[in-house]
């Protein structure tokens, strides 16, 4: 069985795993993400490669930014400001001489669901990652749809208020990122106290009605934008990812609010199934591997 080195490059850490094609993880660890120079970044990846070079059939990376996965080119690097219009695969292969693929992080999460998770049985759909912002991906013909300019599914930028299209106050990332969840709960509790996502759902799961009301308001906004995405793209399923997607209450409330939209629609429009992503913390590692296997099959 073939073995690969998979890496998930984030804003604070690079997670990596020695993974077999059946998703068996043989070894897993992480190192801090260099934020200073490209040279330091390449050498950090190189040192990880050095540990496993005799054991692997290739290297698959999930990375932030706008990426052409077929070319291995990054137009941007997200939080990694030293990556800008870079032939990333070409540069990495000079230090790490093996087959290498790169993919956008949210699109890797979608690939994990397409290849091994809860979207294996669909042709068209979407993935919505609820995190600091909104990660997203459209799936067309059972493949990640990158778009002509490799920015299809950049849901964070969606405007939710036509009266304020300029500021970020009503961007989808602001309304339904983790700060948006906190704001809805603070409004319901009439407080400015800060809570983590874990604390919010602990209170809700203990029956705090005000917190549940705040989460419900948050879920209504998520459901509204899922409806809009579906009306444009005609999704069979929409998978919800991110840490809070592990909370059954959230998925339940998103479904409830989406059902209410359909109940008052007055037209016979297909209702997509809403599911939680199967993979969470390792989604990007698994999705990067799936993309790599598909590239070199």
From TrEMBL:
GO molecular function, one term: kinase activity
Pfam families: ROK
Keywords: Kinase, Transferase
InterPro entries cross-referenced by the UniProt entry: ATPase_NBD, ROK
Keyword Transmembrane helix attached: no
Similarity field: Belongs to the ROK (NagC/XylR) family.
Descriptive protein name: ROK family protein
Source organism of this protein record: Faecalibacillus intestinalis
